[in-house]
Amino acid sequence: QAQLVESGGGLVQAGGSLRLSCTASGSIFSFNSMGWYRQVPGQQRELVAAITRGGYTNYADSVKGRFTISRDSAKNTVYLQMNSLKLEDTAVYYCNARSIVGITTNYWGQGTQVTVSS
């Protein structure tokens, strides 16, 4: 059972930056992909950014050019660098790890709050 521990959330002014970290209990290459999702109360959880085992990345249109997902395999950690933050980026951010071995298994972190103020 994989465990994901997130850190790096907090309060930041609009236009500022934050970096989220997600550390896995094992090798990040044991997963087919890892990513970040976010959720606002009353809304569905949405994909923000993801990176595959092979290094391919994809982003939500709303964050392209502002957010960057990266990884450090030696630290079993995936990062989300968030720049030029907007009020609408306020949400709880969740780390996700996906394993596909016949069936798809999703693992989730506990979530970290990101609040962007004006």
Give structural notes:
The structure is a single chain. The protein has 118 residues and is mainly beta. The chain has no helices and 11 strands. Strands 2, 4, 5, 6, 9, 10 and 11 form a 7-stranded mixed β-sheet that branches. A hairpin with a 4-residue loop joins strand 7 (67-72) and strand 8 (77-82). It starts with a strand and ends with a strand. The relative contact order is 0.32. The model has no long low-confidence stretch (mean pLDDT 96).
In short:
The chain is mostly beta strands and 118 residues long.
Could you tell me the number of beta strands? 11
Q: Which segments are poorly predicted (pLDDT under 50) over 5 or more consecutive residues?
A: none
Distance between the termini: 40 Å
- What is the N-to-C succession of helices and strands? EEEEEEEEEEE
Major sheet attributes: 7 strands, mixed
The shape, in one word, is globular
Helix content: under 10%
Instruction: Figure out the total of helices.
Output: 0
Radius of gyration: 14 Å
Structural class: mainly beta
Fraction in beta strands? over 45%
Summarize model confidence as the mean pLDDT.
96
Labels describing this entry:
single chain, about 120 residues, mainly beta, 7-stranded mixed sheet, globular
Topology:
Blueprint: E1 4-7, E2 10-13, E3 18-24, E4 33-39, E5 46-52, E6 57-59, E7 67-72, E8 77-82, E9 91-101, E10 103-108, E11 112-117
Parallel strand pairs: 2-11
Antiparallel strand pairs: 1-3, 3-8, 4-5, 4-9, 5-6, 7-8, 9-10, 9-11
